[in-house]
TrEMBL record:
Domain of life of the source: Bacteria
Domain Flavin reductase like intervals: 24-172
Keywords: Flavoprotein, FMN
Needed cofactors: FMN
PANTHER family: FLAVIN REDUCTASE LIKE DOMAIN-CONTAINING PROTEIN, FLAVOPROTEIN OXYGENASE
Xref: Pfam families: Flavin_Reduct (PF01613)
Family under the similarity heading: Belongs to the flavoredoxin family.
Identification of the protein by name: Flavin oxidoreductase
GO molecular function: FMN binding; oxidoreductase activity, acting on the CH-NH group of donors, NAD or NADP as acceptor
InterPro entries, sorted: Flavin_Rdtase-like_dom, Split_barrel_FMN-bd
Species of provenance: Hymenobacter gummosus
């Protein structure tokens, strides 16, 4: 096996290091984060850093990049206290990736990338109409990460919209039914293929599969 030390990684060319380190955590969620500025101007950005923080109360986290340059998503969330998290499906993966381009603040990624903003239940942030699983989040906490200047935003789940075929009777989600995609590294998009589901694990009882 290859063995890479911290010194090795620090010595790599910048792009090589970005590609390598961004892939180390494995497959990551592909989400479009929808926001609006205080004046209503919309913004849309691809994120792969969403994480589950708890179910009671339901909380999700987003890690934003350092704010040493303008970050429109972060600025909008701070201004309005809200954002939407929208799953990316294979049918519009190219449009979702295009939101990573550095568009000027005055130009909405919804328009530039061919996606549709949807406002629901008087929530101030726009959802992606093309997404079949969307979550409305309200900002609760902002935790600066001193090690690298990133910021962890903690959001309370206020709304969930999902296609009926995605919701199983036990509350689990069939993301394959939505043709969800995940991200590898910075620019690789993949379909997640179902492999197995297992019952709640208890010591001494072995592993039991759950039938679909």
């Amino acid at each position: 096996m290859h063995h890479l030390t911290r010194a090795d990684i620090q010595g790599f060319d910048k792009i090589y290091r970005l590609n390598l380190v961004n892939a180390l955590s494995g497959y990551k969620p592909a989400n479009l984060i929808g926001t609006a500025a205080a004046d209503g101007a919309t913004n849309l950005a691809i994120f792969s850093s969403a994480l589950h923080l708890g179910s009671d109360p339901p909380l999700l986290g987003l890690v934003t990049r350092p704010t040493t340059v303008p970050r429109h998503t972060y600025e909008n969330i701070r201004a309005t206290g809200c954002c939407t998290l929208n799953h990316v499906h294979a049918g519009f993966v190219d449009k979702a990736h295009y939101t990573s381009a550095n568009f000027p603040r005055a130009e909405s990624e919804f328009d530039a990338c061919g996606l549709t903003p949807a406002y629901r239940d008087e929530f101030p942030a726009p959802y992606v109409a093309e997404s079949q699983l969307s979550v409305g989040l309200r900002l609760l906490e902002e935790l600066p990460i001193q090690a690298n200047g990133t910021v962890l935003l903690i959001g309370a789940v206020e709304h969930v919209y999902l296609a009926p075929e995605a919701l199983r009777p036990d509350g689990t989600l069939d993301l394959a039914a939505l043709d969800d995609v995940c991200i590898s590294g910075l620019d690789g998009y993949l379909r997640a293929e179902p492999l197995a589901r297992f019952a709640y694990a208890r010591a001494g009882q072995g592993v039991k599969k759950v039938s679909e």
